[in-house]
Amino acid sequence: MKTWALFLFFLVPCVEAELCYNGGTFDGTKCICDEDLYYGPQCEFLVQETLNGTVTTSITSSALSGEISTSPTHPAGTRTTPHPTIPISTTSTAFTTTTSQLCYNGGIFEGTKCICDKDLYYGPKCEFLQDEISVTELSVTITVEARVRVTNREFKKSLEDLNSSYSREIHAQFKKQMKVVYGGVPGYRDVEILRMRNGSIIVEHKIISQVLIWNNEEIIPHIMEIITEAVIHALKNIHTEGECIEPSGPELCFVSLPNSILNANYSLNDTCKNISGVKYAEYYYPHITNGTVRCVSRCFSGIQDSINCFNGVCRVSEIGPHCICDNLDMFWYLNNYCQFPIQKIVLGLSLALAVFFVISIILVICLIEAKHKSKAKRKKSRKSWSDNADCDKMGQRNPVFPE
Ligand SMILES: *[C@@H]1O[C@H](CO)[C@@H](O)[C@H](O)[C@H]1NC(C)=O
Ligand SMILES: *[C@@H]1O[C@H](CO)[C@@H](O)[C@H](O)[C@H]1NC(C)=O
Ligand SMILES: *[C@@H]1O[C@H](CO)[C@@H](O)[C@H](O)[C@H]1NC(C)=O
Ligand SMILES: *[C@@H]1O[C@H](CO)[C@@H](O)[C@H](O)[C@H]1NC(C)=O
Ligand SMILES: *[C@@H]1O[C@H](CO)[C@@H](O)[C@H](O)[C@H]1NC(C)=O
Ligand SMILES: *[C@@H]1O[C@H](CO)[C@@H](O)[C@H](O)[C@H]1NC(C)=O
Ligand SMILES: *[C@@H]1O[C@H](CO)[C@@H](O)[C@H](O)[C@H]1NC(C)=O
């Protein structure tokens, strides 16, 4: 049994390496596919990107079939589980002749290479995104937290839960009236109730404004000040108590409170949403260097959660930031960050050594036993030679069984 466990242990990497289809290489934890053509955990799917090129036949996933076919890089018979694969032969001719003319992301093919939009993309096919993208405009979300008193509603316990029906009723009405009250606040978008307190009701809420400014971080505090001032101004004029003709009606009656502003803050979280299409937006976030905001990906070094690709390079593509490891033809890596390279030759060698070692041990055991037997045989010369044949059956030997 131990022999088999040992065998399996060494065999596992070999088996897994066979689990990438269509020429994908296994890097230790996942398959690295030829991204231009294939994707999926085992590179089993064809990229269906609409490419700007000369491909006329669109290849769809209906080309996937249940049959077991062997992709070019894998010798037949190594796979044990049937897997749907792409019948390559039917499509490869159409593809390989045109592959060189394909450019991603709006790149233009010019004779021999793709001309990319350099501010955003690079790579032989414009398939990679720059780690750092400059922006000219910032989309700044400014939130001001404030409070106001509503005089014509009774405070009930149910207002502590903002999801209660009474809360939601007040919320809806509050939003409606605040749209008018805060109409003069630059970039006003919305208002959200944060909590409600007893007295009659003190409504703490958040005013959300969004403004576009030139890329200069230093302006932001100034913009925040302007917006806070506008909120203070709006709340100063909110006294509707006397004008609440019908206090029991649907309209809320307001009275301003001293210290109406609780807090103000800003966020640039929308700034990088626009840079290179919705598709890539989530891979970028704002990073401020020397007062200028840039949209960076996790491939950008020098930020808190940048990716460290130990023996490789970091690239942003359609699948997001990831490491592309060096010398995949010679090494396996134990993780996605190209760490712990294992030379394929060494691995093969250690496997061979392990097998050799195991066989040697078995042989040594056999020899020792044979020696014992021959000693015994010399003592009882009548004993037949056939007992020594045990070593021929070493695979089936099981000492636990009572004879
Ligand atoms: C493809 O590239 C050509 C320029 O070579 C351009 O005129 C055309 O608009 C592009 N088509 C698409 C779908 O991007
Ligand atoms: C709200 O405050 C008033 C007066 O301070 C009190 O009588 C009432 O019980 C309070 N209501 C709740 C729900 O705590
Ligand atoms: C709020 O209540 C509705 C139903 O009344 C429920 O569907 C929703 O999940 C609740 N939301 C939260 C955040 O509790
Ligand atoms: C302002 O926002 C930042 C994150 O955007 C947060 O860390 C900080 O605590 C906020 N400040 C206040 C006063 O809410
Ligand atoms: C940006 O931040 C504001 C305030 O925190 C929030 O309301 C808004 O949903 C955020 N936008 C995105 C895209 O996360
Ligand atoms: C995206 O850019 C367009 C103009 O280029 C602008 O009108 C829009 O407000 C921007 N959206 C965001 C979320 O920044
Ligand atoms: C930021 O400013 C410092 C000096 O003030 C300079 O050394 C550095 O190169 C600047 N960085 C960028 C990205 O401009």
Descriptive tags:
24% strand, 5-stranded antiparallel β-sheet, 403 residues, membrane, 3-stranded antiparallel β-sheet, alpha+beta, elongated, 20 strands, binds 2-acetamido-2-deoxy-beta-D-glucopyranose, 6 helices, Alpha-Beta Plaits, signal, disordered C terminus
Describe this structure in words.
With about 400 residues, the protein is of the alpha+beta class. Among the domains are: about 135-270, Alpha-Beta Plaits; about 305-360, no CATH class. The protein contains six helices and 20 strands. It has helices at about 1-15, 90-95, 165-180, 220-235, 280, 345-380, and strands at about 25, 30, 40, 45, 110, 115, 120, 130, 130-135, 135-150, 190-200, 200-215, 255, 260-265, 285-290, 290-295, 310-315, 320-325, 330-335, 340-345. Helix 1 (about 1-15) packs antiparallel against helix 6 (about 345-380). It binds 2-acetamido-2-deoxy-beta-D-glucopyranose (NAG) (7 copies). One 2-acetamido-2-deoxy-beta-D-glucopyranose (NAG) binds near residues 141, 267, 269 and 270. Keywords: Membrane, Signal, Transmembrane, Transmembrane helix. This is Mucin-17-like.
